[in-house]
Amino acid sequence: MGALPQLVSLRPYVPRVPVAERHRTEHEVHHVATDLSAWSREHVRRLAETGAEHGVTLGDPPDHSPDGVLATLRKKASEAVVHRPEPGLLLLRDLRELHLAAAENSLHWEMLAQAAQASRDSGLLALVSSCHPRTLRQMRWTNTMVKNLSPQILTSL
Q1: Looking at residue 81, what DSSP letter applies?
Q2: Can you give the pTM of this predicted structure?
Q3: Mean pLDDT of the chain
């Protein structure tokens, strides 16, 4: 069985209301967050496949399809409040949550890598080697965005 059953809590963070949708008017945030969300869904899929190979069922990721009434409402709401200070605070909160979730997952990837090395599980190590760098990139992006946006948003209140 190896290390995977002990680390079933490793589930890449996929936000309930995707940041990309909520901050559609912030173009960089929208586009990068869309990419990061796709990476997270891919990580969930790959973890589930690897789990199945180890006899562990991890479940399905939540569905955040961009279609439907809720997506339309989120789009209209993001456009309506773009000129108020609250969207900036919401963006900082979302970036903080994304960063903390990525940091937690980075630690999980590290633990999984150590367990894969100890058990000589080359497939699991390949998964970690492929996915962990993307998680680190998520952390760097969110950290950079917080550093760049915080002064303007927090001093405009």
Answers
A1: T
A2: 0.73
A3: 79
Q: How far apart are CA 2 and CA 9, in angstroms?
A: 15
Rounded distance, CA 155 to CA 157, Å? 6
Nearest to 122 by CA among 50, 68, 28, 74: 50
- Work out whether the CA dihedral 22, 25, 29, 32 comes out positive or negative: positive
| Residue 73 to residues 14, 77, 113, 140, Cα–Cα distance (Å) | 20, 6, 41, 31
What is the C-alpha to C-alpha distance for residues 14 and 41, in angstroms, rounded to an integer? 7
Weakest-pLDDT range from 42-56, 64-78, 106-120: 64-78
Continuous H helices in 5-53? 19-22, 27-53
Q: Which one has a higher pLDDT value, 86 or 102?
A: 102
Closest among 114, 146, 144 to 129, alpha carbons compared: 114
